[in-house]
UniProtKB/TrEMBL annotation:
Natural source organism: Hyphomicrobium nitrativorans NL23
Subunit text: Homodimer.
Gene giving rise to this polypeptide: rlmH
Record's protein name: Ribosomal RNA large subunit methyltransferase H
GO molecular function: rRNA (pseudouridine-N3-)-methyltransferase activity
Family the UniProt entry places it in: Belongs to the RNA methyltransferase RlmH family.
Job of this protein: Specifically methylates the pseudouridine at position 1915 (m3Psi1915) in 23S rRNA.
Binding site for S-adenosyl-L-methionine: L76, G108, L127, G128, P129, M130, T131, L132
InterPro entries: Alpha/beta_knot_MTases, RlmH-like, tRNA_m1G_MTases_N
Amino acid sequence: MRLAIVAVGRLKDGPERALYLTYAKRVDDAGRALALGPLSLAELAEGRASGTAQRRADEASRMLERAGDANVLVALDGGGKTLSSEAFARWLAERRDGGERSVAFLIGGPDGHGDDVLKKASLKLSLGPMTLPHGLARIILTEQLYRATTILAGHPYHRA
């Protein structure tokens, strides 16, 4: 099952991008035997509309377009559902075992997601109640994807 992250904003070269790339490679390496991955990343420019609602709508339209044929959409949203690492791993395995071809994780811009993304997402996922910088949210999500692969593989990386 292919995995994708579609995010508004770009990670600059430096430690954040390096850490993201480290975990993305781990997801690809560990996920291969589990039929999870590869993980792709699409980075979109922030919307330029002057109004918040129009900016969110523009970003939502472009995110959904980049998500393409992903048949499962997950919107990262502060008001979404929180899952333990184990529950997240089970959720991924259930999608894979249920025959889903791809999952796209959508990370909105500073103003949040547009209504279209929230309506079309089959899961609204929260990484926790604290507000995170978008680059850090991307890293945490990617680490949790790697952790999920290790949980499913019985690898000792995850020690709960």
